[in-house]
Amino acid sequence: MHPREQTIFALSSGRPPSAISIVRVSGPLAGTVLTSLAGKMPAPRMATRALLREADQQAIDDAVVLWFPGPASATGEDVAEFHVHGGRAVLSTLFAVLSAFENVRAAEPGEFTRRGFENGKLDLTEAEALDDLIHADTDRQRRQALRQLKGLLGDKVRDWRAQIIQACALIEAGIDFSDEDDVPAELIAPALAKIKALLEEIREVLAAQGKSERLREGLVVAIAGPPNVGKSTLINAVARREVAIVSPHAGTTRDVIEVQLDLDGYPVTVIDTAGVRETVDPVEQEGVRRARARAAEADLVLWLIDAEHESLPHVEAVPSWTVRNKIDLDPGADEPLQQPGGADFKISAGRGDGIPELIGALIGFAQDFFGSGEGGLIGRERQRKLLQDAADMLQRSMDVIGEGEEFAAEELRAAADTLGRLLGRVDVEDILGAIFKDFCIGK
Fold first, then answer.
1. Element (H or E) spanning 113, and its range?
2. Which of 37, 50, 45 minimizes the C-alpha distance to 9?
3. Assessment of whether the complete model's pTM goes beyond 0.70
4. 60 contact partners, CB below 8 Å, separation of at least 6
5. Where are the alpha helices (DSSP H) in 179-307?
6. Strand partners, 300
7. Which of 170, 244, 308, 426 is deepest in the core (most CB within 10 A)?
8. What count of other Cβ atoms lies within 10 Å of the Cβ of residue 88?
């Protein structure tokens, strides 16, 4: 039997031990498995208590079972769920019993969602949104993923694709009636109007997205500066826990330290880098090289100084804020910084002075950086690229129509196919594995 025709099972809840664990079974033998273990078939979609037993009638667990006959299930197949006590021994025994059934096997990562996709329960944009929802770390990421899961992009793309097909049908009809002088013009003119309006709409979406897909990955803020100015103390203060070693000795931080934060719902990765200075120590030299590289790649650099290091130059990065630390030890801290283009923040990372104001400024920067991305249609680079390709094909269809309607029709067919790939309905077998491999085993 082909693997896609086999029945699969997996743990669909958190790691054991836990109060309750959910084991999901999907495929043509789900009903057989459920009846064999529970002794009866429960009513569809009704939680039913049952004593699960092995083939030799040895009890496995006192459980709750549910039955979801296909196609009215998450995967479109017959699905059974076993809600058992979440001990390792219970799950180990249940998995062993399930594996003993012929053509029943453990699921691969994302296989439940992939079967739902293949059975028309969701399109590829919704599957990607489900993955984003599983991996969402902040509330804004969660809300964006949930909107995509509800079809924010998919519904729009289906409508666009239908309009392209309609326009293509008009142009092809014009080709069929090309021997009648007035018919082609009557058909092609509305087709071109539809294409032009659609192209403008798609371009508006592409132009308005900005950095919307970056909400999935988050904002990167690097803390850089000379050695021993308090970079590690600052990252500990921002993270509100000890994530970096703090020492009075210069050169303590040799490598890049990262911490993920949730700032008002915005995902932010803060990086503590090695102190930037000239050194003969090869290990510290590598740390300085990495510090400069990460600062150059960051979306924002906090250049940390104190009274002793105020005159040292920045790591080249834009944008960059200057942050003067140790104001509790600096008698000249009340004097304004003379740093062109840099923001003036005065803090004491050790005592906490100015930290709330700095965090507030970071939240404001994140708001400007992400803009309206939370409500954007595009969530991934794959989606943006395919949508841009479709827009280019629509433009070409208008450019070549003077050379022959058949050329325009071909471009429109290609645009429709491209949007089909965006939805996962046309020639996407080669990318499905790459998308679903990042899912949990039980999803």
1. helix 111-118
2. 37
3. no
4. 37, 52, 53, 54, 84, 90, 93, 94, 97
5. 182-209, 214-217, 231-239, 282-297
6. 221
7. 170
8. 11
pLDDT along the chain (443 residues), means of 10: 88 91 96 95 96 92 96 95 95 95 93 92 88 82 82 89 89 64 67 92 79 72 83 83 51 61 86 58 57 73 79 61 82 50 72 89 86 66 91 94 86 93 74 64 70
Which are the contacts of 39, defined by CB distance < 8 A and separation ≥ 6? 50, 51, 53
Amino acid, res. 337: L
Task: Specify the amino acid at residue 302.
Answer: L
- Site of tokens 């990252």: 235
Q: Which two tokens stand for residue 353?
A: 């002075």
Token output for 154: 């998919």
8 A C-beta contact, residue 145 and residue 126 = no
Task: Classify 86 as helix, strand or coil.
Answer: strand
Longest CA span, the chain: 91
Contacts of 418 (CB under 8 A, 6+ apart): 386, 389, 390, 393
